[in-house]
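Minutes, project check-in
Item: structure for the 85-residue chain
Input as provided by the requester:
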Amino acid sequence: MERRTFSEDGTFIPSHGDYPKAMKELAQEENVPVLHMTEKTTELYNQLGPEESKDLFMWLEEDESLIIQKAYKTAHIFVKQEQPR
């Protein structure tokens, strides 16, 4: 699941570096399914943009936290993932 980070011009900035790629590789090596939550939350943030994506977070003094709406949307993404056969 990506963090919500946008540049000043509204471009989404990925926050996990090579971690998602490493997890996909490990899952393939171990022959286990992997859920692409980083990709899916990136798509969601890009779809919503910097302003609308704010509604997915609870705004504290200098921090962001998950709230029910984000948990619901990310759970929905999780459920929609293709199940391994």
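Outcome recorded: The beta strands are 57-59, 64-66.
No further action items on this chain.
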